[in-house]
Amino acid sequence: MxxxxxLFLCVIGIWLLPSLSQALKPDEILVIANSRVPDSVRIAxxxxxxxxxxxxxxxxxxxxxxxxxxxxxxxxxxxxxLKRFLVLxxxxxxxxxxxxVYGVPLLIVPDRLDEEKEKRLVAKRLFLEMLKHKLExxxxxxxxKEVIDALKKxxxxxxxxxxxxxxxxxxxxxxxxxxxxxxxxxxxxMWLPNPYFxxxxxxxxxxxxxxxxxxxxxxxxxxxxKTVKRIIDDSIAVENRGLTGIAYFDARYPNV
Length: 256
Hints:
Blueprint: H1 3-21, E1 29-34, H2 38-50, E2 58-61, E3 68-70, H3 71-88, E4 97-101, E5 107-109, H4 115-140, H5 145-166, E6 172-173, H6 174-178, H7 204-207, E7 216-220, H8 225-241
Parallel strand pairs: 1-2, 1-4, 3-5, 4-7
Antiparallel strand pairs: 5-6
């Protein structure tokens, strides 16, 4: 994903921050910047000054400025420094929000498979193709429904094994993973329910208690330093003078 395309998402995130600031205190916000990108630390400090966030809440990581990073690098170079900060903090539970800034990678990609895992994956894929061929033959020969259903079930099972073994569903945005920084273990495949999502409020008993452990994460990003700085300045300007125009709301949950 290019930074120019991602800018649209960043604008949305930053426009939301003023509303969050009504519920969030400056000292509850952590900011993550990449010290290998001078403008990353520069924009982080500018934002923190404008929002009165304590300078001590800045976490500087050292990682490539590429938009993608392997999961191993994310764990070692982004997640580990954050966890160290939380361990050393006097009251780590007070931190509720993380802001990542320009220069911090956007996407986590699965690590490369080792040789043994690669061999198993190749074998599973070959077996999957064989099952698919058997299914086609069974259909052509007019086999009983039970036979066809059994083959379909086997195909689904092996396809799931291939997906897990190949870690094809383990890619994720850096920001999404940071929201779970307080959790040591969680499932990497596919999606996990978000306790802040209004659509899950019916499951309050299970999800709401997790809110205290899940970080709200937003991002300050754009194609260059000037653009990101303008996003910050424009957001504050709108807060001061008010916002006018047409607004659109998601009406799927009218009773919430």
